[in-house]
Amino acid sequence: MDLMDATRIFLSESAAEPKVMRITQFIYDQLEFGRPVSHVQLSDMLGTASEKGLFAPIVHKYGEATWNDMIMAIGREIDRQRPVPAQPSWRR
């Protein structure tokens, strides 16, 4: 599963939650037009969906395997973009 597919599933399941739907629609539109999406936006989408309780219904509807694929696709992109914090001086 790629990032676009994962976002599409979140978008289809977020109709009852306007805040999640707005965030997800923006991300989906950006991806559709080939524009970059920041790790901050993706993290915000996951955090808001979690707060609104959307994870369990998605797992129930699509199954564990699809859920894992979705989270891995989003997580890989977040991990790819997120800056690596500098090592504290006391650890050098």
Describe the secondary structure blueprint for this structure.
Blueprint: H1 3-13, H2 18-32, H3 39-51, H4 55-62, H5 64-81
Structure explained in plain terms:
The structure is a single chain. By secondary structure, this protein is mainly α. The radius of gyration is 15 Å and the shape is globular. It has five helices and no strands. α1 runs antiparallel to α2. The longest helix has 18 residues, at 64-81.
Low-confidence stretches: none
Kindly state the percentage of residues in helix. Answer: over 70%
H/E series: HHHHH
Q: How many distinct folded domains?
A: 1
Radius of gyration: 15 Å
Biggest pleated-sheet summary: none
Strand content range: under 5%
User: What is the CA–CA distance across the termini?
Assistant: 39 Å
Shape type: globular
Mean pLDDT: 92
* Multimerization state: single chain
Please tally the β strands and state the result.
0
Structural class: mainly alpha
Q: How many individual helices?
A: 5
Jot down its keywords:
5 helices; mainly alpha; single chain; 92 residues; globular
Structure, briefly:
With 92 residues, the chain is an all-alpha fold. It has one domain (3-82). The chain is 71% helix and 0% strand.
